[in-house]
Specification:
The complex is a heterotrimer of chains A (418), B (166) and C (837).
Chain A: H1 24-29, H2 34-42, H3 45-55, H4 67-72, E1 81-87, H5 96-103, H6 105-119, E2 121-128, H7 133-148, E3 164-169, H8 179-187, E4 210-214, H9 215-219, H10 221-227, H11 229-233, E5 243-250, E6 256-261, H12 266-273, E7 283-291, E8 295-297, H13 300-303, E9 323-328, H14 333-347, H15 353-370, H16 376-389, H17 396-411
Parallel strand pairs in A: 1-2, 1-4, 2-3, 5-9
Antiparallel strand pairs in A: 5-6, 7-8, 7-9
Helix pairs in contact in A: 2-6, 3-6, 5-6, 14-15, 14-17, 15-16, 15-17, 16-17
Chain B: H1 3-17, H2 28-36, H3 44-54, H4 58-67, E1 79-84, H5 87-90, H6 94-105, E2 118-123, E3 135-139, E4 142-146, H7 151-165
Parallel strand pairs in B: 1-2
Antiparallel strand pairs in B: 1-3, 3-4
Helix pairs in contact in B: 1-2, 2-3, 3-4
Chain C: E1 9-14, E2 17-22, H1 27-33, E3 57-63, E4 82-84, E5 89-90, E6 101-103, H2 107-122, H3 138-146, E7 165-166, E8 171-173, H4 183-191, E9 198-200, E10 207-209, H5 222-227, E11 233-235, E12 248-253, E13 262-270, E14 276-284, H6 297-301, H7 304-307, E15 316-319, E16 322-325, H8 328-342, E17 346-350, H9 356-369, E18 372-375, H10 382-388, E19 404-408, H11 412-415, H12 417-428, E20 432-436, E21 449-451, H13 458-469, H14 478-484, H15 487-498, E22 502-506, H16 513-529, E23 539-542, H17 549-554, H18 563-569, E24 572-576, H19 580-583, H20 585-593, E25 597-601, E26 613-616, E27 625-628, E28 633-637, H21 650-660, H22 670-680, H23 707-710, E29 722-723, E30 749-754, E31 778-781, E32 792-797, E33 800-808, E34 816-820, E35 831-836
Parallel strand pairs in C: 1-6, 17-18, 17-24, 19-20, 19-22, 20-21, 22-23, 24-25, 25-26, 30-34, 31-33
Antiparallel strand pairs in C: 1-2, 3-4, 3-5, 3-6, 7-8, 8-11, 9-10, 12-13, 13-14, 15-16, 15-26, 27-28, 28-29, 30-35, 31-34, 32-33, 32-35
Bound molecules: flavin mononucleotide, iron/sulfur cluster and FE2/S2 (inorganic) cluster.
């Protein structure tokens, strides 16, 4: 059995090491789909789940929930089960899933196929943001190829296991990345979040037990199953195993995706890989998880902080989906929050009051504040409105919308002195 | 007569086959895309035809149309140029790009060129933040990304359409 | 036997009050049970919680236990330690648990409520002084009690939206006032399955819209205005007409269909009506055993017929071919004289929406003279429902898993909307719903089994069910035997036989009197054969064509199969609250032949055109009385407005005629007549008029103080009515009915009568808001039969020709033409029809 080649620490962005890996033949030539076959023909779902749990893999969609643990919540007294792949990738600053699916598609597909087997799902829906139209068509072709190769379909490899994959396109709504809104959208009803609990592993798609995982999360799975939990744990930190694709954007010289072991520092990412700040300006802030994140003051302490689930919170932020947006001294925080609020006000689904009304209100305030039409009292009011929203929204979007606002006012007060 | 069904019987059957038979409603989003394929927007008539196919009301279909930004209930440009001006792209010059582009082609943001060929919209993050300035073009042929753009690149693209559409 | 499932109870504390409630109860409901208010907007006790508005935030704590030992952890005072969450939770989505502590009075919670209200008010127009909801508005009330004193939002940054959007002809929307609680859309979707309104756009741009044709056109639309917690949804007939605090509330009953929904009539004195009381609107009155909190639009808007300007105000006597207004004395003397002369040739015909007291007096008068009396109804079976009707203490809301409901020959939503709703809900709770109907109807959506049969075979199908259960039935026709072999029939029979409880509804889809009689008997036999009699939630319900048909049967009136001949031969015809001439040209011909016609009515009808004497009666809003619904619940209605001058209640008119003929009848009050009813009819013997006005606690708690919770519908303070016992319930033996199945032999097209909720009958057409909602006279057929026909066709039916609209519907079986009742076409049962271009 051939083995997947891994050069250095790149697991997900292997196309950078094996340029032709996007071709089916190239992928299979170095062991592609052997793992899937092995899993289906020789393993029990429970063993697969256990292995993934042991690997320490955590969700890459933002919340960092242990993937194996989520799988174990799937209700085995209620069938069928579904695997839904979250390829909605709409957080401003996030562009990793797209690269994985475009450039390393077979590894992604093999990952989701192994994962489906683990949770006993015979159907996988890949929910892609509508803008990934071309990508979806490419995936459809690739799924067709898999069917032709008898890697998908009924009774695979003579086992009892059948598997099909379908793509489903969203149509431009950030909220549909939230897993329950995504499920509603997929069911053809309004893409607004559901109440939780029940969580999808209990009641998900079509009221059936469902696992929703991020693209990047699942793209790891085939290699983890092939090379083992210990191998995966050899990357990263104890609490944050493995590697992570960091989407680096903003005021850096070389924006892009960089796959690094979890625990690498911001300084490494920004200066070693990202080529430093444009025009050698002074770095001012870091948004660690896209527009949803609190803004970190980019001092030395922050720059030397390891990028891992356990360490970023010490800076008053989260690792999240690791979409790192760099702000330099040219960025006015009033401008920044006006931009983020513009986004959240546009994307609020409108279901719950604080998010719907609060963002509308904040939008007016940040507009006035950015355009210099207000005094300090508006800043105080803005801070207050944002804080009044916190802890009261139905889903995390509302909470996200307040993060940049509250942290900017608190951490960059000089920007708000008129 | 369900004209949508007449026109796209095969596609509709393929779309419906993706979802459990008693969950046809899931097909509402792909069917709206299908309806938009002709003219880049959906009419009320088409919404009610989708409703008929999926056994839901026209209002239920309309609700879905109204919720998403890629669905349009009114005609716009044949090609919709959707420039990302969200924060990460804006940090890399997207806003200036948009201003310059509009100036260059003489169409304001949110408006459609006189010949109805294209409109320019400012949109939220398109997951291409490292390749700003960038935009996507939504047309009858689907959605296409154009990254690391200059005004000249875009201008050339528009001129290409002009030629193509005669 | 009905299984008494013992509910598991849970004890918790809410604002320091200990409360014990069934497992699964939501915190907001538990609070309501002990009279603690947790404010809500989106939550409604009849709908699943959605947790959208966030108004109900409370602090919730759970008893702490040691992870290892499971032992309770105690605090310094050796009391159970409570762990509160980091954030507040929505009480509307939080299910109670043992030992839970809920706090709604802390500063944290108070601030949260105030914060949420401030958010709401950022986009609200605050136009309370001109808002119809002002005075009964949950947003207004909750802002007063929980809101911030002032808004920090800049008023000129408010979002402006359209203010007078007609969503349909009956409902207007003010988009500025909408708070996006989705109660209306969820009601239309979840409760009545008619999602013709929905959200459009998202975020702050979210708005309620309809894209359906023709708009928000639902039988249920009015209910959304009751549960809308602001003044966003208003009814076309009430908006800008009165303020809530100006109005009085008076209890009433809807008499339009067999359900008998409880109503509240809101009235006000008006100068333009000479200071008399006028009904301004009709609201639902809670009766959880009848209509819960809902009513259909016919019940809500149709009252206008009673309040219409063109009411009859004086007795009329035809002199030289023209009507002349005369005194009551003169009119009644004349009528008495003619009735006396007619003697046994007096024919009394009474409509189906009179009161029990009216029927009683009519029956007494007719009996005194030895005349014939007939109920103007197309259905039979009222004596069977008296024997095998649904048992005492029944409540359709108790039906669920393990129970079965058979709906036979009824388009239930058209014939009795609230029955449809309650049957749907029973099916959602797990009851097996079996629909036997020749064509698909909305009820089918919830059916677990569907039996299709040809029009005319309705009784045969039910007999086939019996024979599939107990094959050794004598005298079975070939038709029945072959139907009994059908797989669906067999499966259904099994389900029915095994059901814990069985309720059978029989309607009038496609039936005339002969078919109706056979169907009722077959259904009665089915209940007897399967042993579903004499118990709560078991028995027969007639989906009667008017509100008090059951009462009429109980008072001894029933439809006459020879009505045409009877009227034709009448020396005197006494037509009370019925418009046979308007409904059916054949009956019109018969009345033309009758020697002397007395019409007792509210309005100028086609039948009145043929009258010799017209007696102006009072409508249900002006007088009192009792009515008996399909579940044989006797309910009272009360005078809400001053009667139209010159009119009298029907029972009084009849009594005054009686007195002139030497028959002592009560004319002073309905209550006095009722006393006689109690004395005369065994089924009513246990009742007294006062008992009908008694109430009990109902859940959910609604009413004036709880507007934010259940809506503006009224709590019931004037009587839930009393259900009658049945022969089976008293343990009397009820033998199987032996009867012949009626046969229909038609070579060409078969016309069958069907019911539309909105018909052209003698009420709808006088209600100005409803009139435009009535379809033109039409017939419906299968497209395959309609080749070459245009939108209008000529029909020949029972010897009459008419021009009508043609509607096509693939749900109609080929070879059949649906002819709606009360649309001026002569249809009283299945009959041949010819159709020409
Ligand atoms: C507003 C909002 C947007 C989200 N968008 C995405 C997204 O675009 N992609 C994604 O994978 N997860 C997104 N999530 C997280 C998902 O809800 C979910 O946690 C994730 O798909 C789980 O996958 P994981 O366990 O593999 O991370 C979003 C969550 C919220 C609240
Ligand atoms: S916080 Fe509320 S309004 Fe905002 S996206 Fe979530 S549910 Fe929708
Ligand atoms: S969120 Fe609980 S009542 Fe609206």
């Amino acid at each position: 059995m051939a083995e997947h080649k891994v050069t250095g620490h790149r697991i997900l962005l292997r196309h950078r090491d094996i340029p032709e890996i996007g071709k089916f033949e190239v992928y299979t030539a170095q062991g592609g789909f052997d793992t899937f076959k092995k899993v289906v023909t020789t393993m029990q779902p429970a063993d697969v789940k256990k292995l993934v749990l042991d690997s320490g893999l955590r969700g890459r969609g933002g919340a960092g929930f242990p993937t194996g643990r989520k799988w174990m919540f799937v209700d085995d007294n209620n069938w069928p089960h579904y695997l839904v792949v979250n390829a909605d990738e709409s957080e401003p600053g996030t562009f990793k899933d797209r690269e994985i699916m475009e450039r390393n598609p077979w590894q992604f597909l093999e990952g989701i196929m192994c994962s489906a087997f683990a949770i006993g799902a015979n159907e996988i829906y890949i929910y892609l943001r509508g803008e990934f139209w071309q990508l979806a068509h490419e995936l459809d072709r690739q799924i067709g190829r898999l069917r032709k190769e008898k890697l998908l379909g009924e009774k695979l490899f003579g086992s009892d296991y059948s598997l099909n994959i379908f793509t489903h396109l969203g149509a431009g709504a950030y909220i549909c990345g939230e897993e329950t809104a995504l499920l509603n959208s997929l069911e053809g009803v309004l893409g607004q979040p559901r109440l939780r609990p029940p969580f999808p592993p209990a009641v998900g798609l079509y009221d059936k037990p469902t696992v929703v995982n991020n693209v990047e999360t699942l793209a790891n799975v085939a290699l983890i199953l092939e090379k083992g939990a210990d191998w995966y744990r050899s990357f990263g930190t104890t609490e944050s195993a493995g590697t992570k694709v960091f989407s680096l954007s903003g005021r850096v010289n070389k924006p892009g995706n960089y796959e690094l072991p979890l625990g690498a520092t911001y300084r490494e990412l920004i200066y070693e890989y990202g080529g430093g700040i444009i025009d050698n300006k002074k770095i001012k802030g870091i948004m660690s998880a896209g527009a949803s994140s609190a803004v970190i003051i980019a001092n030395d302490e922050a720059l030397d902080t390891p990028m891992a689930y356990e360490s970023v919170p010490k800076l008053g932020a989260d690792l999240g989906s690791a979409s790192v947006i760099i702000l330099d001294e040219t960025v006015d925080m009033r401008w920044l929050i006006n931009k983020t609020i513009h986004f959240f006000n546009h994307e609020s689904c409108g279901k719950c009051t604080p998010c719907r009304e609060g963002n509308y209100w904040m939008r007016h305030l940040t507009e006035r504040i950015w355009h210099g039409q207000s005094d300090q009292s508006d800043v105080i009011l803005l801070d207050n409105v944002a804080k009044n929203m916190q802890g009261k929204c139905l889903c995390a979007l509302g909470e996200f919308s307040t993060m940049a606002v509250v942290s900017s006012i608190e951490r960059f007060p000089e920007d708000f002195k008129a | 007569m369900n004209q949508l069904h007449e026109k796209y019987a095969k596609e509709i059957a393929e779309i419906l086959a993706k979802y459990p038979a008693d969950r046809k409603r899931s097909a509402v989003m792909p069917l709206i895309y299908l309806a938009q394929r002709d003219g880049n927007y959906i009419t009320k008539q088409e919404m009610s035809e989708i409703g008929e196919i999926l056994e839901i009301t026209t209002t239920e279909v309309a609700s879905i149309v109204g919720f998403y930004t890629l669905y349009h209930d009114k005609p716009g440009g044949k090609y919709r140029i959707q420039v990302c001006t969200d924060m990460p792209c804006a940090l890399r010059g997207a806003e200036e790009f948009l201003v310059n582009l509009c100036e260059n082609v003489g169409v304001k943001v949110g408006e459609t060129s006189e010949d109805g060929l294209f409109s320019i919209e400012a949109v939220m993050c398109l997951a291409a933040c490292d390749k700003a300035p960038m935009f996507q073009v939504q047309s009858d042929d689907g959605i296409e990304y154009h990254e690391n753009q200059t005004v000249e690149d875009t201008r050339a693209l528009i001129d290409g359409w002009k030629k193509k559409e005669g | 036997m009905a299984e008494q499932v013992k509910e598991k109870m849970v004890t918790l504390t809410i604002d320091d009050v200990e409360v014990t409630v069934p497992e699964g109860t939501l915190v907001v409901d538990a609070a309501k049970m002990v009279d603690i208010d947790i404010p809500v907007f989106c939550y409604h006790p009849k709908m699943d919680p959605v947790g959208m508005c966030r108004m109900c935030l409370v602090d919730v704590g759970f008893p702490m236990r040691d992870r290892e030992t499971g032992q309770p952890i105690l605090d310094e005072d050796s009391k159970q330690a409570i762990q509160f969450g980091r954030t507040l939770v929505t009480g509307c989505t939080q299910v109670v648990s043992e030992g839970m502590v809920v706090i709604g009075y802390s500063d944290k919670v108070k601030k949260a409520r105030s914060d949420i209200l401030e958010m709401f008010l950022t986009s609200h127009p605050l136009d309370c002084p001109i808002c119809d909801k002002g005075g009964e508005c949950p947003l207004q009330n909750l802002t007063m009690s929980h809101g911030p004193g002032e808004s920090r939002f800049l008023f000129d940054e408010k979002k402006h939206n359209e203010k007078h959007v007609p969503l349909g002809e009956l409902i207007y929307l003010d988009r500025e006032r909408c708070i996006h609680c989705a109660r209306c859309t969820r009601f239309q979707d979840e409760i009545v399955d008619d999602p013709v309104i929905g959200f459009y756009n998202r975020g702050r741009s979210l708005e309620i819209t309809t894209w359906s044709e023709p708009g928000f056109d639902s039988y249920w639309s009015g209910n959304t205005t009751d549960i809308c917690p602001v003044g966003a949804l208003t009814t076309a007939d009430f908006r800008f007409r009165a303020r809530p605090w100006e109005m009085l509330a008076s209890a009433s009953i809807c008499t339009q269909c067999a359900v008998g929904c409880n109503l509240t009539l809101n009235t006000r004195r008006e100068a333009k009506s000479d200071g008399r009381l006028v009904v301004k609107r009709v609201m639902p009155r809670q009766n959880e055993q009848v209509n819960e909190l809902w009513i259909c639009d016919k019940g809500r808007f149709n009252y206008h017929y009673a309040a219409a300007d063109d009411r009859l105000t004086s007795p009329l006597v035809r002199k030289d071919g023209k009507f002349e207004a005369v005194s009551w004395e003169e009119a009644l003397d004349l009528v008495a004289e003619k009735f006396k002369a007619a003697g046994t040739s007096l024919v009394t015909l009474a409509g189906g929406q009179l009161s029990n007291e009216d029927y009683f007096n009519l029956g007494q008068l007719s009996g005194h003279l030895g005349g014939k009396s007939a109920l103007y109804s197309g259905m039979m079976g009222g004596s069977l429902t008296a024997k095998l009707g649904i048992g005492l203490d029944s409540n359709l809301a108790d039906l669920g898993a393990g129970d079965a409901i058979l709906v036979a020959a009824s388009d239930l939503e058209e014939e009795a909307p609230l029955y449809w709703l309650r049957v749907k809900q029973a099916a959602e709770r797990g009851a097996a719903l079996i629909v036997a109907n020749p064509r698909r109807t909305k009820t089918d959506r919830y059916a677990s089994l569907k039996l299709r049969y040809g029009y005319g075979q309705e009784a045969a199908v039910v007999m086939a069910l019996i024979s599939a259960i107990s094959p050794k039935q004598p005298n079975l026709s070939e038709d029945v035997k072959s139907l009994a072999k059908d797989a669906a029939v067999k499966e259904t029979a099994q389900v029915l036989a095994e059901a814990n409880n069985l309720v059978v509804f029989f309607g009038s889809e496609g039936t005339g009197l002969a078919q109706s009689e056979a169907l009722a008997k077959a259904c009665a036999n089915l209940l007897t054969a399967t042993g579903h009699t004499g118990r709560p939630n078991n028995g027969l319900i007639g989906v009667w064509d008017r509100g008090n048909v059951q009462g009429a049967w109980d008072m001894g009136l029933q439809p006459s199969p020879s009505l045409f001949e009877d009227l034709k031969a009448a020396k005197a015809a006494y037509v009370v609250s019925a418009d046979p001439a308007g409904d059916d040209p054949a009956l019109k011909m018969a009345l033309v032949k009758a020697e002397f016609v007395v019409v007792q009515e509210l309005h100028h009808t086609a039948t009145m055109e043929l009258a010799d004497v017209v007696l102006p009666a009072q409508s249900f809003i002006e007088r009192e009385g009792s009515a008996t619904n399909g579940e044989r619940r006797v309910q009272r209605y009360y005078p809400a407005v001053t009667p139209v001058p010159g009119t009298k209640p029907d029972y009084a008119i009849t009594a005054e005629i009686g007195v002139r003929l030497g028959k002592q009848l009560e004319s002073l009050s309905a209550g006095m007549v009722f006393t006689q009813v109690v004395g005369k009819f065994a089924d009513y013997a246990d009742l007294d008029y006062q008992a009908l006005a008694e109430v009990q606690d109902q859940w959910p708690i609604i009413g004036r103080e709880d507007l934010y919770y259940g809506g503006t519908g009224y709590a019931n303070k004037q009587g839930l009515g009393v259900q009658l016992n049945t022969a089976a319930g008293r343990g009397e033996p009820v033998p199987l009915e032996i009867f012949d199945l009626p046969e229909i032999k038609v070579d060409g097209l078969l016309a069958v009568p069907v019911t539309s909720l909105y018909d052209q009958g003698n009420s709808m057409r006088y209600a100005a808001v409803m009139f435009p909602r009535i379809a033109a006279t039409h017939v419906v057929m299968n497209p395959t039969d309609a080749d070459g026909f245009g939108e209008h066709v000529g029909v020949t039916l029972n010897g009459f020709d008419a021009q009508v609209d043609l509607m096509l519907d693939e749900k109609v079986p080929p070879g059949v033409v649906l002819v709606p009742r009360s649309f001026g076409l002569p249809i009283s049962g299945p009959t041949p029809i010819t159709i020409k271009k």
